Amino acid sequence: MPITNAATNSIYDAVAAVSNISLDTMSVEERDYFKSEHGIEFLNSTSNQGICFGNWLSHPQNVVKAAKLVSESVSVPKSVSAPDFDEFVSKVIVQAIAVTGSLQSKGIKNCVLSQINPDLANDTEAIVKYATAIINAYAVVGVDKSKVIIKLPITWESMQAAKQLTASGIQCLGTVCHTLEQAVLAAEAGCVAISPYVDDLGVNIDPSSYVVKPLEENYGYQMTKQVHMYYRAYGIKTINCIAATIGLDVILALSGVDEMTIPVVALYKMINTSVPEGVVTPGLKKTYTKEEAGPELSFINGGADAYNKAFESNKIGVERYHLAINTFSSFQKKAEVLVKNCLVEYGIVKA
């Protein structure tokens, strides 16, 4: 059904007719706005360190609730200088991720997505522990693990963790995907989905910096299309859920992909912009031949060295991957400071 209060033949309607649409925020207010004003119900809703930081900055009550829940199972540190303070903060952050996600889960069709600490991306054991802690935190607020997907930046080590987590019934999404090699490894590891980053993450932080490029010169578009072609040609069931999408030109060109996680700024534009004359959707075909997709690849049984060599051969992909990880790591640190300040400000821990 076409959305109400929108442009005639809107880009949103055209894209939503051929791809599932998910929300790239944990804002309950934005979710409810799109439902009440435009009749949109999103499939999934995602978060990362930047999204969590922004949410907790405007909704400190989520951090306070998390701290109170954590304090029911562990002792509250006597002060910020106590030896157990940092560990308490870490537990509150994990619980706050779940508190925030639980609120969003009430108004979407399927799952909320929560990302591990990016600083752990190369530590299999730590990833399993952190992901399991997130799932346990969701259980505390009444959200079953079937309604949660854990986001893991795709590395050799994280995909070994994905295999373990999947075996224990925890759904994983391979994120920060910037190369075909990452997409192949994530599918082999059993991820339910991947998220190729279409636009540079810096553009998503500052959408005003977006510059339209010819599609043949747009790395994110070309990489994402390559993944779509490969998955379709080789019958891979892992969902291709594209992310970091700002440009309407690229969104239209990638329509037909399994799923799109769209940030709020792009959703507003999609709703209020008509499909340009001459543009046909879907931009991607449903089926591709193996000749079109290229040779079949496999990494899961080849060892870390072979995979890393293949991944590192793509200089642009590697650069974009590290930019994203460093950005998320920066927001992780900001979130830690924010949570510490909240604990003091709201009288949970003494200064």
TrEMBL record:
Source species, domain of life: Eukaryota
Gene Ontology terms describing biological process: carbohydrate metabolic process; pentose-phosphate shunt, non-oxidative branch
Keywords: Schiff base
Xref: SUPFAM superfamilies: Aldolase
Matches recorded under Pfam families: TAL_FSA
Segments passing through the bilayer: none
GO molecular function: transaldolase activity
Tagged with keyword Protein transport: no
InterPro entries: Aldolase_TIM, TAL/FSA
Keyword Cell wall biogenesis/degradation: no
PANTHER family reported in the protein's UniProt record: TRANSALDOLASE (PTHR10683:SF34)
Name listed for the protein in its UniProt record: Transaldolase
Organism of provenance: Saccharomycopsis crataegensis
